[in-house]
Amino acid sequence: MDVLGACQAFVYVSERGSFTTGAAAARMSQPVVSRRIAALERHFGGTLFDRSSRRATLTPFGRAMLPSAKRLVRLAEAMNDAAVRAKLSPLRLAVPDTCPPRDLAQLAAEARTLEIYLDFQAAPPQERRDLVRSLDVRAALVALPAGDGQWTVPLGLASAVEPQERAVYVETLRPGRGDSGSPRRIWIQPEDDVPHIRDRIIRLRDAVGLWPVQVAVAGAPTTAVAEVLASTDVLLCSAKEARELGLHWRPMGEVEPMRGYDVLAEHRDDALRLGSHLGTSIGRCLGAPDSEASTR
């Protein structure tokens, strides 16, 4: 028996003093209300209403049971209200600061159709993990080695002047013996200041004979971009980032560094909802090639 449904019928009829108006208030048909109250009487072994009069008058047993029935109905209503509020509460998501605002807005709009209300917090890689651990966010897009995560983003080198070659070989940045000016640098953004990317670029620097100062880690993305715009330096970034910044992107000739990403969340359900239902839109924000192609 549906005890809650029966108690709702009991409460509404008792408050209105009529099976007809009580059924209307409960948004049930009168026959349904009558059956539910009869089932409740059988369940408790007592008569709730005196059916000898035209009004729905409570019996002594009915008056004794009414307060408990009201508490149950009010509690159910409160739970329904809490569920609505919980669905509307924002899911705070830590994201890379390389994600374009327009793509994040499109992700948020798509999430709303799934009753997921996203609130973004941009942060560098390690801080995103720390935000999940400290419960300042419910989930984060965390950096991983390529192949270990759900999304992969190839990186290359971007410059203010368009290169003639289809790929940029890092060895071509090596200063010649007669060069007296500042050597060209590869700028690494905070998003790529992680061992699986940064260390690989440094090993390549040493292998091809670049000076130590020719690989620099910027304190902020805007710093790295400004250095590239004002010089012949190059920026390590994705092809999508380069387009957003108005730079000319080429893959690297010697290696193919990649960003990897996955969802880290306090609760597994949050990770599944984001990764499964919003995977394509998240990939677009990160600059994953497959996600970009699927939206064209």
UniProtKB/TrEMBL annotation:
CC annotations in GO: protein-DNA complex
PROSITE patterns to which the protein is assigned, alphabetical: HTH_LYSR (PS50931)
Domain HTH lysR-type positions: 1-59
Gene Ontology MF term list: DNA binding; DNA-binding transcription factor activity
Any single Pfam family the record assigns to this protein: HTH_1
Keywords linked to the UniProt accession: DNA-binding, Transcription, Transcription regulation
Family, as annotated: Belongs to the LysR transcriptional regulatory family.
Protein name stated in the entry: LysR family transcriptional regulator
